[in-house]
Write a structure and sequence with these properties.
45% strand; five-stranded antiparallel beta sheet; alpha+beta; 129 residues; five-stranded mixed beta sheet; 1 helix; ATP Synthase, domain 1
């Protein structure tokens, strides 16, 4: 199979010769082989595994969508982290998501300050009429 994994800013992986894929959905995990019927699946955050002639590759993925048409499989997710060792992948996930959590808190704080400033100016504008 031909597997292409997309994240918002780039093509994360473009692999040919993929013999099997295991992905997770909200209802559980499922496997894909080349001759399986075409399908579309909403992916849940978890581990996506695929097998090539070089071995097994593990990807930690965020929620997204998987589309299989013929021998082509397209996966589109918000975040992906790859590795061949589950222990190292676990450590990398913890490190990245802690960084994302800090960044998201900073952005939320900035948005809250902007909203309160806007609300204050709007109140001043309404009282000045």
């Amino acid at each position: 199979m031909h597997l292409k994994i997309l994240v918002p800013t780039e093509v994360f992986a473009d692999e040919t010769g993929v013999s099997a894929i295991v992905a997770e959905t909200g209802q559980g995990s499922f496997g894909l082989l080349e001759h399986r019927l075409d399908c579309v699946a909403a992916l849940a955050p978890g581990i996506l595994t695929y097998t090539t002639e070089h071995g097994v590759v593990y990807l930690a993925v965020d929620e997204g969508v998987l589309v299989k048409t013929g021998a082509d499989v397209l996966v589109s997710v918000r975040h992906a982290i790859g590795g061949t060792n589950l222990g190292q992948l676990h450590d990398e996930i913890k490190r990245r998501f802690l960084t994302l959590d800090r960044e998201e808190r900073t952005v939320r704080d900035m948005v809250a300050k902007m909203e309160s400033g806007f609300a204050g100016r709007l109140a001043e504008f309404q009282h000045g009429r």
